[in-house]
């Protein structure tokens, strides 16, 4: 249960990060916020890696690690492109497919074949996400065929699923602290280079005009979420971890949306949370 507990803690931190991201929306460009977030994590994760004093132990670390860095950076770019082309309400629901993509990706990359309880938990969590998002926009099929941003968001879900599987593939050849540090530094370098290549480094200044408390919260949740995720991956299957993240992300969106943004709790949201709780319980039993 240690791994499951770490996975839940990581999922709660990711949910908290989503709340802070929502509060910061519109206060700076998404690209600049992403670069700030990645760069801001580097000193803290670097300190953890230095304290741990265990670095890369095998050259086999680098192929999956560099692939994960690249996919994380590309996912950020595609996410931003998606929301530029289409409303969030018609694209974000496609991220509900991440646990399914994770389960499929982990089979060839890690040899992790989910059992019946795992699949049942994944399906319930995905259904919960679909129920929650079903009142946000048009049907999925219409979104796929009519929304220009939909294919980009589906690609984001695939990239996030693959990058988590690649992280776990890299971890046997480096300590969790070292990989967390290198992943953030590498992704920040790739995305920062892209920002400067576009000739928009000035966008970073907008970030520092945002409330300092929110920026501190952004970094705190991000560092804790990534660190706990790397530790949890030593015990948990990738599909289980990604399902927990999706489940607590939905639960957090309902709870924190009510507490901080005054969003109503509807019957649809209650049904979604019930499905998520049932799915998470099955994952706990299977783990």
Q: Given the helix and strand composition, which structural class is it?
A: mainly alpha
Task: Return the average pLDDT rounded to an integer.
Answer: 82
Number of helical regions: 12
Which runs of at least 5 residues are low in confidence (pLDDT < 50)? none
What is the string of helix and strand elements?
A: HHHHHHHHHHHH
The radius of gyration over CA amounts to 18 Å
Beta percentage is: under 5%
Helix content: over 70%
Task: Summarize the main sheet.
Answer: none
> What's the structural domain tally?
1
Number of strands: 0
Distance between the termini: 7 Å
- Rough outline: globular
Task: Write up this protein.
The chain is an all-alpha fold and 287 residues long. The chain has one domain. Helix content is 77%, strand content 0%. It contains 12 helices and no strands. It has helices at residues 2-24, 30-52, 62-85, 98-110, 116-133, 140-146, 150-170, 176-197, 203-207, 212-232, 238-261, 267-286. Helix 2 packs antiparallel against helix 8 (176-197). The radius of gyration is 18 Å and the shape is globular. It starts with a helix and ends with a helix.
Keywords:
287 residues; mainly alpha
Quick structural summary:
The protein has one domain (2-286).
């Amino acid at each position: 249960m240690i791994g499951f507990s770490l996975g839940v803690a990581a999922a709660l931190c990711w949910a908290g990060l989503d709340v802070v991201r929502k509060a910061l929306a519109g206060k700076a460009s998404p690209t600049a916020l992403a670069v700030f977030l990645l760069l801001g994590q580097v000193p803290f994760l670097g300190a953890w890696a230095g304290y741990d004093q265990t670095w890369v132990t095998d050259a086999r670390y680098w192929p999956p690690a560099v692939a994960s860095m690249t996919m994380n950076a590309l996912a950020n770019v595609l996410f931003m492109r998606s929301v530029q082309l289409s409303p969030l309400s018609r694209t974000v629901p496609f991220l509900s497919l991440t646990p399914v993509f994770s389960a499929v990706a982990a089979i060839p990359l890690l040899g992790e074949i989910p059992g019946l309880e795992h699949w049942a938990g994944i399906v319930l969590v995905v259904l919960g996400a679909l129920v929650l998002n079903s009142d946000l926009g048009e049907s999925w099929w219409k979104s796929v065929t009519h929304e220009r941003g939909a294919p980009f968001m589906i690609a984001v879900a695939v990239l996030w699923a693959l990058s988590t599987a690649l992280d776990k593939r890299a971890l046997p050849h480096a300590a969790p602290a070292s990989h967390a540090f290198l992943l953030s530094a590498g992704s920040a370098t790739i995305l920062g280079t892209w920002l400067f290549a576009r000739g928009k480094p000035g966008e970073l200044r907008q970030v520092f005009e945002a409330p300092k408390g929110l920026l501190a919260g952004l970094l705190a949740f991000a560092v804790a979420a990534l660190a706990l995720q790397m530790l949890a991956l030593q015990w948990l299957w990738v599909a289980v971890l990604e399902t927990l993240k999706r489940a607590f992300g939905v639960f957090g969106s309902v709870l924190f949306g009510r507490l901080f943004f005054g969003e109503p709790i509807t019957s649809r949201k209650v049904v979604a949370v019930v499905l998520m709780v049932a799915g998470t319980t099955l994952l706990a039993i299977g783990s």
